[in-house]
Amino acid sequence: MNRIRLWIELIGLYVGLPLLYFFKLIPWSKLLTLIVVFMVLGITLLRDKSFNRASLVNVKLDSGAWKKLALRFLLLSGVLAGAIVILCPHLFIVLIKKQPFIWLGIILLYPWLSACPQEVIYRVYFFHRYCDIVKNKKLLVVINVILFSFLHVIYFNWVAVVFALVGGYLFSTTFLKTRSLPAAMAEHALYGMMIFSIGLGQYFLKGV
Q: pTM for the whole thing?
Protein backbone atom coordinates (compact mmCIF):
# COMPACT_ATOMS: atom_id res chain seq x y z
CA MET A 1 0.00 0.00 0.00
CA ASN A 2 1.12 3.55 -0.70
CA ARG A 3 3.23 4.92 2.15
CA ILE A 4 1.35 8.23 2.20
CA ARG A 5 -1.97 6.41 2.54
CA LEU A 6 -0.58 4.39 5.43
CA TRP A 7 0.63 7.51 7.21
CA ILE A 8 -2.78 9.14 6.71
CA GLU A 9 -4.46 6.02 8.08
CA LEU A 10 -2.12 5.89 11.08
CA ILE A 11 -2.63 9.55 11.97
CA GLY A 12 -6.38 9.39 11.44
CA LEU A 13 -6.84 6.25 13.49
CA TYR A 14 -4.39 6.83 16.34
CA VAL A 15 -4.43 10.62 16.59
CA GLY A 16 -7.59 11.85 14.92
CA LEU A 17 -10.02 9.48 16.62
CA PRO A 18 -8.82 10.21 20.20
CA LEU A 19 -8.94 13.94 19.41
CA LEU A 20 -12.56 13.64 18.32
CA TYR A 21 -13.36 12.23 21.75
CA PHE A 22 -11.15 14.73 23.53
CA PHE A 23 -13.09 17.60 21.93
CA LYS A 24 -16.36 15.75 22.52
CA LEU A 25 -17.26 15.56 18.84
CA ILE A 26 -18.39 11.93 19.00
CA PRO A 27 -21.66 11.34 20.90
CA TRP A 28 -21.54 7.57 21.42
CA SER A 29 -19.57 5.65 24.03
CA LYS A 30 -15.84 5.01 23.85
CA LEU A 31 -16.41 1.30 24.42
CA LEU A 32 -18.70 1.05 21.39
CA THR A 33 -16.14 2.75 19.17
CA LEU A 34 -13.39 0.50 20.53
CA ILE A 35 -15.38 -2.62 19.65
CA VAL A 36 -16.25 -1.35 16.17
CA VAL A 37 -12.65 -0.40 15.37
CA PHE A 38 -11.46 -3.74 16.76
CA MET A 39 -13.86 -5.63 14.48
CA VAL A 40 -12.96 -3.61 11.38
CA LEU A 41 -9.21 -3.94 11.91
CA GLY A 42 -9.53 -7.58 12.89
CA ILE A 43 -11.31 -8.35 9.62
CA THR A 44 -8.67 -6.33 7.74
CA LEU A 45 -5.92 -8.44 9.31
CA LEU A 46 -7.64 -11.73 8.54
CA ARG A 47 -8.07 -10.71 4.91
CA ASP A 48 -4.40 -9.75 4.61
CA LYS A 49 -2.51 -12.69 3.10
CA SER A 50 0.80 -11.37 4.46
CA PHE A 51 -0.45 -11.46 8.06
CA ASN A 52 0.74 -14.35 10.22
CA ARG A 53 -2.37 -15.51 12.04
CA ALA A 54 -0.31 -17.63 14.42
CA SER A 55 0.31 -14.53 16.54
CA LEU A 56 -3.39 -14.46 17.42
CA VAL A 57 -3.29 -17.82 19.20
CA ASN A 58 0.35 -18.33 20.10
CA VAL A 59 0.65 -19.34 23.75
CA LYS A 60 3.82 -21.41 23.40
CA LEU A 61 6.32 -18.82 24.56
CA ASP A 62 10.02 -19.28 25.16
CA SER A 63 10.99 -21.04 28.36
CA GLY A 64 10.36 -18.82 31.36
CA ALA A 65 8.52 -16.09 29.42
CA TRP A 66 5.22 -16.53 31.25
CA LYS A 67 7.08 -16.71 34.57
CA LYS A 68 8.93 -13.49 33.77
CA LEU A 69 5.68 -11.69 32.93
CA ALA A 70 4.07 -12.93 36.15
CA LEU A 71 7.01 -11.92 38.34
CA ARG A 72 7.16 -8.47 36.75
CA PHE A 73 3.45 -8.03 37.34
CA LEU A 74 3.69 -9.08 40.98
CA LEU A 75 6.60 -6.73 41.61
CA LEU A 76 5.07 -3.69 39.93
CA SER A 77 1.60 -4.24 41.35
CA GLY A 78 3.05 -4.65 44.83
CA VAL A 79 4.99 -1.40 44.53
CA LEU A 80 1.97 0.46 43.16
CA ALA A 81 -0.40 -0.91 45.80
CA GLY A 82 2.07 0.07 48.51
CA ALA A 83 2.32 3.58 47.07
CA ILE A 84 -1.47 3.93 47.13
CA VAL A 85 -1.65 2.76 50.76
CA ILE A 86 0.98 5.30 51.76
CA LEU A 87 0.06 8.28 49.57
CA CYS A 88 -3.69 7.89 49.01
CA PRO A 89 -5.05 5.47 51.61
CA HIS A 90 -8.61 6.66 51.01
CA LEU A 91 -8.45 5.25 47.47
CA PHE A 92 -7.12 1.81 48.33
CA ILE A 93 -9.56 -0.93 47.18
CA VAL A 94 -12.36 1.67 47.33
CA LEU A 95 -14.29 0.10 44.44
CA ILE A 96 -14.18 -3.34 46.05
CA LYS A 97 -15.46 -1.94 49.33
CA LYS A 98 -18.16 0.39 48.00
CA GLN A 99 -19.30 -1.24 44.74
CA PRO A 100 -18.19 -4.90 44.80
CA PHE A 101 -20.57 -6.02 42.06
CA ILE A 102 -19.35 -3.32 39.67
CA TRP A 103 -15.78 -4.31 40.50
CA LEU A 104 -16.58 -7.97 39.81
CA GLY A 105 -18.21 -7.06 36.50
CA ILE A 106 -15.11 -5.12 35.47
CA ILE A 107 -12.82 -8.00 36.44
CA LEU A 108 -14.87 -10.45 34.37
CA LEU A 109 -15.34 -8.24 31.30
CA TYR A 110 -12.20 -6.11 31.13
CA PRO A 111 -9.94 -8.73 29.51
CA TRP A 112 -12.41 -9.31 26.65
CA LEU A 113 -14.02 -5.91 26.09
CA SER A 114 -10.99 -3.71 26.68
CA ALA A 115 -7.62 -5.46 26.84
CA CYS A 116 -8.17 -7.74 23.84
CA PRO A 117 -9.50 -5.06 21.45
CA GLN A 118 -6.77 -2.61 22.47
CA GLU A 119 -4.02 -5.17 21.97
CA VAL A 120 -5.31 -6.09 18.52
CA ILE A 121 -5.51 -2.42 17.52
CA TYR A 122 -2.32 -1.15 19.15
CA ARG A 123 -0.05 -4.15 18.94
CA VAL A 124 -1.09 -6.78 16.37
CA TYR A 125 -2.49 -4.42 13.75
CA PHE A 126 -0.08 -1.56 14.41
CA PHE A 127 3.15 -3.52 14.18
CA HIS A 128 1.99 -5.52 11.17
CA ARG A 129 0.53 -2.60 9.26
CA TYR A 130 3.15 0.08 9.78
CA CYS A 131 6.44 -1.81 9.99
CA ASP A 132 7.15 -0.96 6.34
CA ILE A 133 6.79 2.80 6.77
CA VAL A 134 8.92 2.93 9.93
CA LYS A 135 11.85 0.61 9.33
CA ASN A 136 13.59 1.35 12.62
CA LYS A 137 12.01 -1.04 15.14
CA LYS A 138 12.98 1.03 18.17
CA LEU A 139 11.43 4.13 16.63
CA LEU A 140 8.29 2.17 15.80
CA VAL A 141 8.03 1.10 19.45
CA VAL A 142 8.46 4.71 20.59
CA ILE A 143 5.70 5.84 18.23
CA ASN A 144 3.45 3.02 19.42
CA VAL A 145 3.99 3.83 23.10
CA ILE A 146 3.35 7.54 22.57
CA LEU A 147 0.18 6.88 20.57
CA PHE A 148 -1.12 4.41 23.16
CA SER A 149 -0.50 6.96 25.87
CA PHE A 150 -2.12 9.68 23.73
CA LEU A 151 -5.26 7.56 23.42
CA HIS A 152 -5.82 8.05 27.13
CA VAL A 153 -6.29 11.82 26.84
CA ILE A 154 -9.93 10.86 26.33
CA TYR A 155 -10.14 10.35 30.11
CA PHE A 156 -9.10 13.96 30.79
CA ASN A 157 -6.50 13.29 33.48
CA TRP A 158 -2.73 12.93 33.58
CA VAL A 159 -2.80 9.72 35.64
CA ALA A 160 -4.33 7.70 32.80
CA VAL A 161 -1.86 9.16 30.29
CA VAL A 162 1.22 8.42 32.42
CA PHE A 163 0.09 4.90 33.33
CA ALA A 164 -0.65 4.19 29.67
CA LEU A 165 2.84 5.37 28.75
CA VAL A 166 4.37 2.77 31.06
CA GLY A 167 1.84 0.12 30.10
CA GLY A 168 2.30 0.80 26.41
CA TYR A 169 6.01 0.12 26.71
CA LEU A 170 5.44 -3.12 28.62
CA PHE A 171 2.77 -4.43 26.27
CA SER A 172 4.53 -3.48 23.04
CA THR A 173 7.84 -5.04 24.09
CA THR A 174 6.04 -8.16 25.27
CA PHE A 175 4.25 -8.51 21.95
CA LEU A 176 7.38 -7.95 19.88
CA LYS A 177 9.40 -10.44 21.93
CA THR A 178 6.73 -13.14 21.90
CA ARG A 179 4.67 -12.35 18.78
CA SER A 180 1.76 -13.49 20.89
CA LEU A 181 -1.56 -11.67 21.25
CA PRO A 182 -2.50 -13.88 24.23
CA ALA A 183 0.68 -12.83 26.07
CA ALA A 184 0.17 -9.10 25.45
CA MET A 185 -3.53 -9.38 26.20
CA ALA A 186 -2.92 -11.29 29.44
CA GLU A 187 -0.38 -8.73 30.62
CA HIS A 188 -2.66 -5.84 29.71
CA ALA A 189 -5.62 -7.50 31.43
CA LEU A 190 -3.67 -8.18 34.62
CA TYR A 191 -2.49 -4.59 34.95
CA GLY A 192 -5.92 -3.23 34.11
CA MET A 193 -7.67 -5.41 36.67
CA MET A 194 -5.02 -4.52 39.24
CA ILE A 195 -5.58 -0.80 38.67
CA PHE A 196 -9.33 -1.15 39.18
CA SER A 197 -8.78 -3.34 42.24
CA ILE A 198 -6.36 -1.12 44.14
CA GLY A 199 -8.45 2.03 43.68
CA LEU A 200 -7.28 3.84 40.55
CA GLY A 201 -10.10 2.77 38.27
CA GLN A 202 -11.81 6.14 38.52
CA TYR A 203 -9.13 7.57 36.25
CA PHE A 204 -10.04 5.12 33.45
CA LEU A 205 -13.83 5.18 33.53
CA LYS A 206 -14.98 8.65 32.50
CA GLY A 207 -17.42 8.46 29.64
CA VAL A 208 -16.87 4.75 28.98
A: 0.95
